[in-house]
Amino acid sequence: MVAPRSTHATANARSGQIGVAVWSRLEALAEGWRSLSDLTDRETWNDPAVQSCAGLIDNAQSIAVLTGAGVSAESGIPTFRDALTGLWARFDPTQLATPEAFAADPALVTRWYDERRVACARCRANAGHLALAELERRSKAAGCRFRLITQNVDRLHQLAGSSDVVELHGSLWDWRCTHCGEQREERAVPFAEYPPRCHCGGPRRPGVVWFGEPLPSEAIAAAWAAAEDCDLFLSIGTSGQVEPAASLARVAAQTGARLVEINPQPTTQSDVVDLVMRGPSGALLPLVLAALDAC
Ligand SMILES: [Zn+2]
Fold first, then answer.
1. Where along the chain is NAD(+) bound (predicted)?
2. pTM for the whole structure
């Protein structure tokens, strides 16, 4: 990860696809974390797309990673839409995830978010989370800048060991008093009352970004700086449709960065990235790490 940018040799592997032969192996890996020593099957991690991705990482001096709901889904975290089931099926997001909804019925809104906390508390970081934490450690040890930007609010990246995570949409675990503004992480589930109360008596709300609210300015600035500064941008588990995700990838591309997409389905940016890897990040990222070992 110390080679100059001019040595980007493998970046032309546009639209590389994981071969059919490795799919059974990938599906097995997707079940959970396997140690890298298990990945001795060269047929598996010698796949051209995996090799290309490893080559891009090996040559990068500044890496920015953007993760989206797909990475959380691999841990069993329900997407926002999927969470609107059962007793909540009769609600739409604007009734639960807006400042107006909280003002109208803080007990209802915080109960829904508490159920999401309970669901998240049952989930664990997956192999993709762990691989990104490992990639951060390796990158920094090699003198390569590494920034992780996420649209996810579950904090599984931090649980996996990632540091300095930029949370574009806030966190489900941080709760803020709407009277005195005190914010703190609340890990114990469930709450005893709705809405949960601050020591000052004020109702507390989740530290997530609601519809109609601006994204945290510090997070936006950090994400923008990472995109402008990087020479490799990895877009993982995100459709690329939600802003500022689409803009971040575009900014990175405009400054000359290579773009890699890791996602099971095609996205709006699939046609413009340098390398596409189709599959779950929990299967592909460990393979990339294994391939990096051979670089
Ligand atoms: Zn308070």
1. 151-154, 237-239, 263-265, 281
2. 0.84
